[in-house]
C-alpha cells in the first residue's frame, strides 16, 4: 500500500525500499546538497539517491549525520561509475563511497551504466555480489540496463539484481523493459521522472492536473507510483521537495493513467545505454 512517504515496496530478497525518494543528480557538493537532503528528511523522505560521479557523497553523508533520524530508518543508494568497473576497481570504489558518506553499509548499490564496449559489467556484478554476501550492502542492482543487458547478467549471476533504475517518464514508458523486470522480480526505478521539466507544460498533463487540483509534476509522480515504479525526483527547493511528495492523498483513474501512458514517444533526454561509453 502506498499511503505515505514511508511506504515501501519489498525487493525480492525481502528488503523494504521506499517508493519515493530524493535524487541528488547535479546538486552541488557543499551546502546545496546538505540543505536539500536535510529538507527532504525533515519533510518525511527516507530514501536518498546519490552516485560517485555526482561528486556530492560527502555532503549527503554530512546531512545524514546531522538529520536526527536513525540510520536504520534511512535508505541510502549510491552507484559505481563507469571508470571504476571491474572486480577490484568496484570494491575500491565502493569503499571510497562508503568513506565519503560516513556510513558502515549501503542500502542499495548500483552499476551506473552497462558500458557494453568495456565488457566489464559481469566482473563488476561479481564484486557487488561479494559486498552483498559480506553484509556491506543490503540490496544490489543496476541502472540503465536494457532487457538484453539484464538477461546477460542473470545468466551469469549468483544473485539476481533487485533494482533497475532507468530513465522513465510519460515520453519514455519502456513497457517491454518494465514487463521483463516484473517477470524477474526486479523493481523498476525512475530517474528523470519529470523529463528534466520538459513535460510540465504538456497540455494533456496540465488538463489532468487541473481535474485533480494538483501540479503537473504531482500528476506524473503519482502515475509513476501507480505503475509500481519507484521514483526519485530531484529538487533543491524545500517547497518543491514538499510539493513533489504531496501525492498520497489522491488516486488517478484508470482512464487518466492510460491517457498519460499514451504520451509515450520512446523519447530520451539521456543517452541510449547501448551507446553510452563515457568513462
Automatic annotation (TrEMBL):
The keyword Oxidoreductase applies. Keywords: NADP, Oxidoreductase. Pfam families: Aldo_ket_red (PF00248). Gene3D superfamilies: NADP-dependent oxidoreductase domain. PROSITE patterns: ALDOKETO_REDUCTASE_1, ALDOKETO_REDUCTASE_2, ALDOKETO_REDUCTASE_3. It comes from the Bacteria. Residues 31-264 form the NADP-dependent oxidoreductase domain. InterPro entries: AKR, AKR5G, Aldo/ket_reductase_CS, NAD(P)_OxRdtase_dom_sf, NADP_OxRdtase_dom. Belongs to the aldo/keto reductase family. PANTHER family: 2,5-DIKETO-D-GLUCONIC ACID REDUCTASE, NADP-DEPENDENT OXIDOREDUCTASE DOMAIN-CONTAINING PROTEIN. This is Aldo/keto reductase.
